């Protein structure tokens, strides 16, 4: 065996975070395990419920059942579990479709921004020099912009605005933080012996980046995905609450909580906005505790490495 091959074997990288390590952390943390179970229940509630219910029927205006209380029965014999809103629409059905839309938007933004951010960060951190400087100047420019105000303006002027439009608008701005984070991690990893050994052996840059660097930042990717998932859901619901998110006709957790803007509804009709508010709170806490468990698993991986 040659000296170069021996050097490469000695300079092994830390193995990616495995399923067993993650499972061990969840078994040790009962709150994280409960949060994971609760998160799965919410996802099943939103996506399976959306398949069972008919959105056109749920969102249909029915003035005769306006502001029906929880448990009231309509003239057609339909029982409203959570009551109705000012248009006579079933709050339970709106909660199902609203949760699905908010989760879908948050997840889509997280995936798109992570793909862009990880790729840009790996390229900038690995090559350095002029490429790194150019990319970081672009990132710095976007980060100093009033992003929330720009999103509000774009939402206002874009014709035929829908959920996908919101996903692309938010994704266009929120990848920069990830790019800076993974660029810093890549700069650190690029100085390790296993990268130097691979370069010495003539391994192509493509293979080094995607076969060696990428697996060694996988734990950071997983934990960052989890935390940003909750953050993106929060941004979407906040924008919708303020009237600059999804259109009013599109159900979301933000549109339901936006009913609290009316003082009469806020004080006397809590069944309209409280269920969505509680669901947002439980969803955020569940994702946060799951993310903390994943972060501890990543830290344990680093210690073992």
Automatic annotation (TrEMBL):
UniProt membrane topology term: Multi-pass membrane protein
Transmembrane feature ranges: 31-53, 103-126, 138-157, 163-182, 213-235, 271-291
Ranges for domain ABC transmembrane type-1: 99-291
GO biological process, one term: transmembrane transport
Keyword Secreted belongs to the record: no
Gene Ontology CC entries for this record: plasma membrane
Superkingdom of origin organism: Bacteria
InterPro entries the UniProt entry points to: BP-dependent_transpt_permease, MetI-like, MetI-like_sf, OppC_N
GTP-binding is among the record's keywords: no
Short name of any one Pfam family annotated for the protein: BPD_transp_1
Keywords: Cell membrane, Membrane, Transmembrane, Transmembrane helix, Transport
Record's subcellular location: Cell membrane
First-listed, main subcellular location of the protein, grouped into a coarse class: membrane
Family: Belongs to the binding-protein-dependent transport system permease family.
Protein name per Swiss-Prot or TrEMBL: ABC transporter permease
Organism: Enterococcus saccharolyticus subsp. saccharolyticus ATCC 43076
């Amino acid at each position: 065996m040659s000296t170069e091959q021996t050097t490469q074997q000695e300079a092994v990288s830390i193995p990616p975070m495995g399923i067993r390590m993650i499972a061990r952390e969840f078994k040790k943390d009962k709150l994280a395990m409960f949060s994971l179970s609760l998160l799965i229940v919410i996802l099943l509630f939103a996506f399976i419920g959306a398949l069972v219910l008919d959105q056109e029927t749920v969102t249909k205006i029915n003035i005769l059942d306006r502001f029906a209380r929880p448990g009231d029965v309509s003239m057609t014999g339909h029982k409203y579990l959570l009551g109705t809103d000012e248009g006579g629409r079933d709050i339970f059905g709106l909660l199902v479709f609203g949760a699905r839309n908010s989760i879908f938007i948050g997840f889509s933004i997280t995936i798109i921004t992570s793909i862009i951010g990880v790729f840009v960060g790996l390229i900038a951190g690995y090559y350095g020099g002029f490429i790194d400087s150019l990319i970081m100047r672009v990132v710095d420019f976007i980060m100093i912009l009033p992003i929330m105000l720009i999103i509000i303006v774009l939402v206002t002027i874009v014709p035929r605005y829908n959920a996908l439009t919101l996903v692309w608008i938010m994704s266009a701005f929120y990848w920069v933080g990830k790019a800076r984070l993974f660029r810093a991690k890549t700069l650190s990893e690029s100085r390790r012996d296993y990268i130097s050994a691979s370069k010495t052996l003539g391994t192509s840059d493509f293979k080094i980046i995607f076969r060696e660097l990428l697996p060694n930042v996988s734990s950071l990717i997983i934990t960052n995905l989890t935390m940003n998932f909750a953050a993106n859901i929060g941004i979407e619901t906040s924008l919708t609450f303020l009237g600059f998110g999804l259109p009013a006709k599109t159900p979301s957790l933000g549109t339901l909580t936006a009913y609290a803007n009316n003082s009469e509804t806020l004080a006397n009709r809590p069944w309209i906005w409280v269920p969505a508010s509680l669901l947002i709170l439980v969803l955020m806490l569940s994702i946060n505790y799951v993310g903390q468990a994943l972060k501890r698993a990543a830290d344990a991986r680093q210690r073992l490495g």
